[in-house]
Write a structure and sequence with these properties.
Layout lengths: L6 H7 L2 H7 L21 E3 L21 H6 L3 H17 L4 E3 L22 H16 L4 E7 L12 E3 L2 H19 L3 E4 L3 E2 L2 E2 L4 H11 L5 E3 L9 H6 L14 H8 L5 H18 L14 H14 L1 E5 L12 E5 L24 H6 L7 E5 L15 E2 L7 E6 L10 E7 L3 E3 L13 E9 L4 E10 L1 E6 L2 E6 L17 E7 L4 E9 L18 E8 L3 H14 L3 E6 L20 H11 L4 E5 L7 H4 L4 E4 L7 H9 L13 E2 L17 E3 L8 H6 L4 E3 L10 E8 L3 E8 L5 E11 L12 E10 L4 E7 L6 E4 L4 E4 L2 E10 L2 E10 L3 E3 L3
Parallel strand pairs: 1-2, 2-3, 3-5, 4-6, 4-27, 5-8, 10-11, 10-23, 23-24, 24-25
Antiparallel strand pairs: 6-7, 9-25, 12-16, 13-14, 13-16, 15-22, 16-21, 17-20, 17-22, 18-19, 18-21, 26-28, 29-30, 30-33, 31-32, 31-36, 34-35, 35-38, 36-37
Helix pairs in contact: 4-5, 4-11, 5-6, 11-16, 13-14
The structure holds beta-D-glucopyranose.
The site of beta-D-glucopyranose (BGC) has 8 residues, from loops.
Length: 830
Amino acid sequence: MSPAFEIESVIQEATINEKISLLAGKDFWHTHPLERFNIPSIRTSDGPNGVRGTKFFGGVPAACLPCGTGLASTWDLELLRKAGMLIGEECLAKGAACWLGPTINIQRSPLGGRGFESFSEDPYFSGKLAGSYINGVQSKDVVATVKHYVANDQEHERVAVDAKVTERALREIYLLPFQIAIADSAPGAVMTAYNKVNGTHVSEDKRLLQDILRNEWRWKGLVMSDWFGTYSTTEAFNAGLDLEMPGPSRWRTGIANLAVSSRKVTDETINDRVRNVLEFVQRASKAKISLTETVRDFPEDRKLNRQLAGDSVVVLKNNASVLPLSKDIKQIALIGSNLKNVAFCGGGSASLEPYYTISPYQGIIDKLGKDTAVHYEIGAYSHALLPILSDGLTTPDGRPGALISFFADPPSVCNRQVVDQLSIREAFFQLMDYRHPQLETLYYATVEGFFLAPATGIFQFGITVYGSGNLFIDNKLVIENTETQRPGTSFFGKGTAEEIGEVDLVEGKTYHVRLEFASSPTSKVLKPGVVAFPGGAGRIGTALKINEEEHIRRAARLASENEHTIICVGLSKDWESEGFDRQDMDLPGNVSRLLSAVVEANPRTVVVTQSGTPINMLPWADKTTTQVHAWYGGNETGNGLADVLFGDVNANGRLPLSFPRRNADNPAFLNFRSEGGRVVYGEDIYVGYRYYEKVEREVLFPFGHGLSYTTFEFSDLHVEKTRVVLKVTNTGGCAGREVIQLYIGADEHASRISRPKKELKGFAKVFLEMNEMQEVIIQLDRFATAYYDEILAKWVNEKGKYKVLIGKSSANIVLEGDLEVEETVVWSGL
Ligand code: BGC
């Protein structure tokens, strides 16, 4: 039910201070209420592959969907709409009427820390997927927030970096996903990016926030800042930033009142901002949210999530027809650290406490009969930080996990009082949204538990903190991370590097583990371009020290003895996270050497990789016969993967990104970090396949690539003015889904400006039984032949002949037709 307040009367009657209070958050996740006018507070929640709720640690468990690149690999608009409906339901259960997603930035480089969150290197594709996802979310009356508007494509110095980008690239590549998503789904909110674009922070950029978003695109909705991404009072108000998040406000306090009384900001501007906030509140209030944060996790959600995970899996190579695997086998070798350590989600604000996770190991053995002998070898570790301590950890009163006790005083104070105590499932905590009335900004916490050693040997323990901390095992100091701190990557870039200590443990014995932590004001790590957050954070990791040479040899021997071998390796949220970019595309530690050894020992090995963005496969890719890429698949990671490996799902995922051979081949290679405060988008519109094709650079796996267990034939292409019709027939041995990709190629020589060889301008996905044929129609919209003309400051569909290219990837075109634009058309708007 809409709350009973009338927007214009609030604007008439509220005091200036009341109005200003509405223009910033109340706390970390909620907008400010005004009881006098019956204006409720609206809860927001991340985004973009689930709904975390209001707690960054010890949160209410949630559904976790595949990461952005995984969802995009389905190439399935209808499925994305259903995924959005699930997100909408999860929002309702978590009491959130506003969802902070989807992320629709562009993967300029394989190294972007948040690349996994966004959909694709192709802007048209991203925009279409976003539109469907948002329509699903908003069908539950939850407001979706597209983010991060715009050019937030790297993490390095993300709040300070100035993205230098031409108007054409800005329009055709970086703004286009937002433009299409807005046209297709009218999202209720837009979140501004942290960075600058061409000299101005987006949250202070009138051209981006008003001229383009509101005037040119005629979008009506709420513009909110990214968390701590409001940097001024006057400039942000005047540029069009409606809501500062999170609260309590830094900029919209007494100082805002001064800005109004000195007329640096007019009453009218304040009223416009208030109107947008109130319209948002009214719209969001229609969502039938739960009053408490609750769990759902119904069988039908699990089924949908499993389909999303399975349909996201991309079979890259199946040269020896090893896939699909038979379930009826005597023995199988399973190798690699990602089999049991489930990489289900990237890091940062996308991460959440999942209802459950199915590891690849579990998913695979569930497919096999009881009589199949399963042999496992880890081969080599792939963690960046020691895995978080959780297995074998119990609280002092015997519950799984650890106990965290909060104090206002440091450990040196005798008889200090515990002010709060919580149990946590694993030794990891982020306190930005944790508050307690008896705690100021500087406070202390003790994390303790009893660890049952799973083996005898030297164990490494590691601690990483934002704040400071010392680790004790059986009351003996093992790690000091208080006085001398080295900067690291965790906790949105605010954390220290991991400090490691070694302890001899005996299998079956229990050890007391205790971290003495002090909150963020005690941090000695200074980093430019990174936002501080309250409370601080910490994690304790541990692993048995192993001799990797020996383990690689064991893994290779196992592979040589087993005809059926699966190796599953890759990255995880340690490597791909908000807060930092990757240094290179390499797989961690000795993983590449492990892969080479295993593939050499058994070339029929099924190589499964996991990551949200491209990784270096060169050292071994030429030797593999069978390769599968599996992203971060959410709760159902292992089931989705196993469904494809064993053929219960006919492989139907297709890459939403090109996988280059080397990072140095990538068009952003020379321009991907903040240098001198800026990053030059020197590749211009030539992002991803647009570049690789233009300069004829070979990639390892092209955009759109992915195999099926059946074959499809495309025929009878018929191009009309506004649509393309063709026939698709399943000519192989089983039912399956196929993706039809439509690219438009402009005449590079006849055009007034430089054009890519081809650009994706439409796609469809069909399900066909064996021998079935279906007619497929793909509409052509105004973007099909358009480029953005910087002199006219308008879109132009230039008169001339274009190729219509129907492909199975950007590099595998199977049908060609002609399209003629008879008259040049110039346009602007949505
Ligand atoms: C991220 C946003 C997120 C917000 C709230 C920021 O650090 O950039 O994507 O929605 O935090 O968690």
